[in-house]
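hiii, so i know i said id send this last week but things got crazy w the move. better late than never?? heres the sequnce for the chain we talked about at the cafe, plus the structure i predicted for it. fair warning i was half asleep when i ran it
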Amino acid sequence: MTTAPAATAAPASSTPSSGEPSSQGLSSGEPSSREPSSKASRLLHPDPMVRRLARITLLNTIGSGLSLSVGVLFFTRFLGLSAAQLGLALTAAGLCGVLASVPAGRAADRWGTRRILVALVTVTGLGTAGYTLVGGYPAFVALACLVTAADRGASAVRNALYAEVLPADKRVAGRAYLRVVTNIGICLGTGVGAIALQVDSRVGYLTAILADAGSYLLVAVLFHRLRVPGPAGGARMVRASSAQRETAGKPVRDRNPALRDGPFLVVTALSGVLSLQFAMLEVGVPLWIAQQTEAPRITIAGTLIVNTVLVIAFQVRATKGTEEPAAAARACGRGGLFLAASCLVIGLAHGLPAVLAAVVVLAGVALQAAGEVLGQAGSWALSYDLAGDRAHGAYQGVFNAGTSASMMIGPAVVSTAVIGFGLAGWAALGALLAAAGLAMGPAVRWAGRRGTATA
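okay and structure toks below
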């Protein structure tokens, strides 16, 4: 369900920091040889390091869910912003998020992922707390841009950190597990936020916002305590660039390798198109139910529940078999076809009786969830596979920029180009998603011919 799977997932570390209690079973980055003994512990990941990441992720995403549930009402009712003002500010902030991803990734390559990540998460936390002190619209816009830029930049750096601390064959499965935890955390945070919504007081909203800010700052401390094994990928990249400049005998400006990698840019763009599914679920489906079908309004909540449950149940399983680039591309292709089918089914709900319309929409959302878990698993794998062992920050920064761009334009695309044209609009969106998924195969074959794909 999460539109920004990487935005709230915690980074990984193969070893604990010094001073970490040994009772946590994290004295090394290797999986524990002991099997979980209780029924509850069997639900946990077998790798102690991933379990630690899950705890950090849960903390971060509970705070995010809490803030998401009250943010709009706080901004409009207590800061006095109109809907148009809020929309304009969030659009500007979204653009800043797109622009921040690439330089954040490059900074991670130069100065280390952990250092940059701690800085960005700290800025996000302080900026979130700053919302409670904003006194005017210009200040709100500036702060929203700062917070979003820091948050999206941190997302890119987190993804780069995965590549540094997780074995290549464990990265995608690890991200899938943390994404499940992300969904659980956001659901829990949203549930707590419902209490603030029910109280409906300024104090309640301020408490929710500050709790989210506090979760960011605590997570930043935990990130600071992580030890990334070995030299950072960025350090290797910078040394190589320096040697190249010395060999050439003249200064050469460092260039972002990801921006010169044609196959990777194509995969990034296609993944961004597939990410329109999140706007489809969170904006398109609610508008369609409320404006164009007879389904009860409660169906809107039902769609989010169906999606969340299915993602939690199947996201990790969907990563199996995506270890090779060709297999990951096939997963994206199947995901695109499921998404296309979901668009058609959802579009068919128009004109049906209330109960039948609700059933049809929920069936369409179930298909969307199948497409989501497959498409995400394949895209994650390709974002790492096509980068290989090169500058992880640069590649993940570019890839994250594509996702951020989709998040920025998706709501406008879905609300205007889809909802306004009925079944034809849904069919067009489905065709676009299917084409993006199926085009991953040729893009990966292109990368293979250029020698950029790794086994």
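btw DSSP finds 14 helices and no strands in the chain. thought thatd interest u
miss u guys!!
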